[in-house]
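Model it.
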Amino acid sequence: MTLAIFDLDNTLIGGDSDNLWGQYVCDQKLVDAAGFEQQNNQFYEDYKSGTLDINAYLRFALSSLKGQPGDVLVAWHREFMRTIIQPIMLPKAKALIAKHRDQGDTLLIITATNVYVTRPIAEALGIENLLGCEAEIVDGLYTGEPSGVPSYREGKVTRLNAWLEETGESMDGAYFYGDSQHDLPLLELVDNPVAVDPDETLRARAVAQRWPIVSLR
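Modeled.
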């Protein structure tokens, strides 16, 4: 079976779920909104400019989950999905996923967003395999600390290689759909790289390398 790998944010959905989660917890007053919103916006600007400190960002993002009971986190995310994520689900993305599924391909999402935010989104898209940034959990509660290798930039390749070794899947003929400069390490690795609504850096590389450029918007 061919492996079809997808980035999530601004690729399969029409927004950045990590940034949107930060905005959501501010709007719902689940955190100290003034300070949190300013930091959330600055981290997103750092991400877009390619200067993000991923570990500092993860500690910030995970701080909203720290110590919260599981049933509370489930309720928060259910409302986040209903009000924020469902409206930005992309019909063309769902059609692309269905095309690969109908071809018998193995589907995998690799995202730099943490798995608390992204697991329900992947499930809504019908994709079981997900590699996202992991968070430390002790006694059933988030500690606010990241865990393992962040699936960000070259970390996506590291996490993918570990997953391939674990599952026995092959990279022969693999596809990867990504939207940003941060996806370049993995795009350069696969046989079939596809730029999806790309940022300027990725668009320039895609044009130079003659990679397909598509829009799912």
